[in-house]
Every structure is written in C-alpha cells, then in structure tokens.
Amino acid sequence: MRKQARTILAFAILMTSGEVFAQKISNNKEKIMTNNSEQNEQLRVAKSYYEKINSGDFNDDSYFDLFTEDVKIFYPKFGFAEGKLGVKKFGQQVRNLFNNLTFELDKFNFIVTDNTIVVEGVEIGAIHTGAVFPDNEISFGKFCTVFEFEGNHIKRMYCYVDPDHAGQDKEVVDLLKSENKNLIEIEHKTIEAETKKVVDEFYEIQSGKKQGSLADLFADMVDFDLPGNKEKFPWTGKRQTKKEVEDYFKVLYQNIKSLKFDVEYIAINGENAVAVGQLSSVILKYNKVFNAQFVNIFKIRNGKIVKYHFMEDSYRLNEEMK
C-alpha cells in the first residue's frame, strides 16, 4: 500500500510540474506574440509619420496623435523641443526650410528592438532658395532617426541629418573638399616622384652613368612587350617574369651594338611614364646600322616596373635587315 501511495504521489507531482511548465511555455508564447504585435504597431506608426509628411498632413490632429504629450524631439541646428507644442514649432520651422520634401520610403531601412525603432532613410526635395537636393556630389539625402515608444506613441524622436541639405555651406564644403583634394594631390605627386625616380634610374643604368642591374628594377611579374620578328630578332617579343626580362637584356646586347640612345623627353602621369627619343644601333648579325624613333611606355608600382612596352619601327627593321 505504501509503495502504491508513493507511486501515486510521484505521478501527481510529475503531472503538476508538467502543467506548470506548459503554462510557462504558453505565457512566453503569449508574451512573444504580444511583443511582436506591439512592435508591428510601432513600426506602422513610424512609417505613418513619414507618410503624413509626404502627403503634407503634418499639421492636423492625426499627425499630433502619433506623439505622447511629453514627447522629446531633436533636430540639428533646430535643437531640442518638448511636447506637442514643440512638435508643432518644429513643423513650422521645417516649412520655412523646405519648399518641398519627400521621403523615399522604399529605400528605408528599419531596425526594430524593444520599444525603439531606428530609421535609416533617404530624402529628396528643394530648400527655400529653390536649390534641389541631393546632388549626389556634395549632398546625398541620407539621414537617421531614432524613435522611442511608449505603447504605440512616439515618446522620443531624435533626427540626425546634415541640415545643409543642398550643400550650400560653402565654407564647410570647401574645407572638407579642399582637404581631400590636397591629400589626393599630395598622393599623386608622391607617386609621380617615385615613377620619375625609377625611370631616371633605368636610363642612367642603361647609358652606363650608373652601376646596377636593369632587371632588378622590374617586378617579379611584368607586362613586357617589344614587337618584332622574333625569328630574325630574338630579343623581341613578350615577357612576363623578371627572369625573362633579365634574359632579354643579355640577348639584346649579344645581338646589337648601341651607337646612340637619346631620350628627348619623358612625360609622367601618376604611375605611368612615356619616354620618346632617337636610337641608332648596329644589328650585328647583318652588320647594318638601324636608325629609328622610339616610344618607351612604363608603369611603376611600389618602386618596380610592372609594365614595359618598347615601340620602334619594327616593320622597317625587318625590311632593312636582309
């Protein structure tokens, strides 16, 4: 009997625990459903705020009813305001600032958590001077607003946006843009100085004015091209590696004797350089002198030659060397 009583008691405890556990799950589900329902309603209110501005309905009771009585708002350069009177004052100031204002709701991003909604959006329109924004060069129409809710009403609305919507604050724009231009110009000049240094060194070594290896000036991988008839002139053709470039110079000077190689000028733009000049060489196999103009194209990156194209009258070279 005692054993049977203990079994019945254990079963009763188990059933009671199960009911309590089931009730907790049910309560949690109801809480989640309630939270989701409340957040959906808050999201609807946030969207409704922008829809009313788009339609011009932001001076009637339905607009002010979106807010709590003690709502707090913030807008850059307007500052802070409280209550529905503060909302009304803000609306009046907005009318002074804009001729028209539209929010592109399809481009909005809503981040919803607890009683807070963060909106990342895009706005377009024209300010009081008639200037249209954004121009997507200085002004971009981007903004972010934080809504805090009490129930289904907006308790706090802080908007973060550049109030110079049309980018007409020339002093600030010039400071920001000129700084960027200065940095770009400095970087460009630095790159050009490096390009000039490598190209000058190349011709100094080639002319014998400076000791060194021409191949060492090249990157491990290179776009190298010297068009020509490779069967007759083995130094012509394409190369891709530093080792192939090293072999090129060996083959070149085994087959020609340079009489003149004058660089007339070098043009540099960033990492690119073009040299133009006159050359005169004896082609040893044919014991003939070849005179020609040349164009030498370089690209320099990280202090190394990554592109080297040498162009001369390869057709005439082929025709004269017979």
Automatic annotation (TrEMBL):
Residue intervals of the SnoaL-like domain: 47-157, 199-307
Gene3D superfamilies, per the entry: 3.10.450.50
Keywords: Isomerase, Signal
Keyword Signal applies: yes
Keyword Signal: yes
Xref: InterPro entries: NTF2-like_dom_sf, SnoaL-like
Signal peptide extent: 1-22
Molecular function terms from GO: isomerase activity
Protein name, as recorded: Ketosteroid isomerase-related protein
